[in-house]
Amino acid sequence: MNQMREPSGLDHKRSVQDYIDETPIWRDGTQVAATPMTAMQWRIWWLAAAGKFFEGLVVFMTGVTLPLMAREFDMDAFQHGLVGAASLAGILVGALLLGGLADQFGRKLMFVSEMVIFIIFLALLAVSPSFGWTVVFLFGIGIALGCDYPTAHLVISESIPSVARGRLVLSAFGFQAVGALTGTLLGYLVLSNIETVSAWRLMYAAAILPAVLVAVARLFVPESASWLLAHGRVEEARQAAERLLARSPQYPKSIELAHRHHGHPGAAGHDHGHERTPAALFKTPHNRRATILAAVPWFLQDLSTYGIGIFTPTILAAAFGHQAATGRNLSDLVSADLLAAEGAALVDLLLLVGICVAVALSDRIGRIPLQIIGFIGCAAGLLVAALSTYYSGDRAVTMVVIGFMLFNFMTNLGPNAQTYLIAGEVFPTRIRGMGAGFAAAFAKIGAVLTAFLFPILLADFGTRALLFMLIGASLLGAVVTWCYRIETRGRSLDEIGM
């Protein structure tokens, strides 16, 4: 049998990404078609995917828990908005303040810390004594999830082959949709068996043990070798790369790294303090373009996605004619919540379908075309839902469900998936965490505004006007994406931003 060997005649002092991207060659000269993934690379991927799963689980399960919280704490419309916006506001703060710390202290430290923070606040939420503390604990959960936005992307993208980066990052991101569907189904399961107002506490508590297991497993992954190399820690980077690329039979047999990152700590003439501040995101033409592309479309996308996602059960309950049930007895409340959860599960299923299509196409078609197509498709889905308000009865319900299903499919095919992917790719290594964190934080301003104002605007202006506003935001997202486009499909992270 032929043995695999390393390519001959190459400069053996290369970057981390060079070693990750390299494909082995058989002794007869036949090159392997794809770069083989190691067990450690897959472990990192699974642990990062778990973070996105918990985000979808907690954020979208709020739609099921909200009616029960409202009954227990006697909440008004303003307080509904606070609960819906609390975790999203935390994501904003976490992405902005903690996400950038991955550039300063390393990817692994933040990868572990964010999960510990998540577990602490999740446990506190399950035993929350009052409305005020519930908002505080949801905010704390959001801080942890916000840190995960840039960090999870970075630990994947800096550990896997460039040719597979799009589909693997998006596959992990797709677990947000799995979490959203699981959260809705979990809520349905709990309500079906425990008909009490406090059932919402058990829904959140069910995630604690899985989160602990993920936090422990994250302790045993290596630091990003690319981050270590960018900080001049060449020997540590070599050791981390060896752990990352350990396989049997071993390939490559030895790793010698060349420092190729511009602006590392040892380079002369760089203002390193300036590079660790948000000003670095606007310092060069490329960084400015990257920041606008990463942040603005994501902001416009989040205006729709989180408002629709969190309040889908509420809207569907209204469409089915059960909005008045919240003012009656507990049995009516649970019945209405169960019916809305069933509809939300059907709608959320299209999030999963959309991300599967995005995984299949992102490395073939590219990020920019899919994001533009997705934004236009989102506008079409919202238009169908908006037009349903001109009808009544079964036709209106059918149009709302179809519109939301189309929206969920197109958002995960396009902007919800691609904005996350692009934000972790378009920035140089030195500011990649800060750039991705800034983009996520800016986006969550839109999510917070929508989640907070959605129930108020829904009551004051009605569903139709609100949906037409979101249609305009989706179309604007397509325009901004085209004007500031940077295609990263198949490009090595070492090349981007140089």
The gross shape turns out to be: globular
Average predicted local confidence, pLDDT: 83
Structural class by helix and strand composition: mainly alpha
Q: How big is the Rg? A: 23 Å
Into which percentage range does the β-strand content fall? under 5%
Q: Between the first and last Cα atoms, what is the distance in angstroms?
A: 43 Å
Which spans have pLDDT < 50 for at least 5 consecutive residues? 261-274, 322-327
User: What is the string of SSEs from the N terminus onward?
Assistant: EEHEHHHHHHHHHHHEHHHHHHHH
- Count of alpha/pi helices: 20
Number of strands: 4
- Percent in helix: over 70%
Strand order of the largest sheet: 1-3
Q: Main β-sheet, in a few words?
A: 2 strands, antiparallel
Descriptive overview:
- This protein is mostly helical.
- Helices cover 70% and strands 2% of the residues.
- The protein contains 20 helices and four strands.
- The chain has helices spanning 16-21, 39-73, 77-98, 101-105, 107-126, 131-157, 165-173, 175-193, 199-205, 208-218, 225-230, 234-244, 272-275, 285-319, 330-361, 367-387, 393-413, 415-423, 432-460, 463-483, and strands spanning 4-5, 13-14, 25-26, 256-257.
- The chain has a two-stranded antiparallel ribbon.
- Helix 14 (285-319) packs antiparallel against helix 18.
- The radius of gyration is 23 Å and the shape is globular.
- It starts with a strand and ends in a 15-residue tail after the last helix.
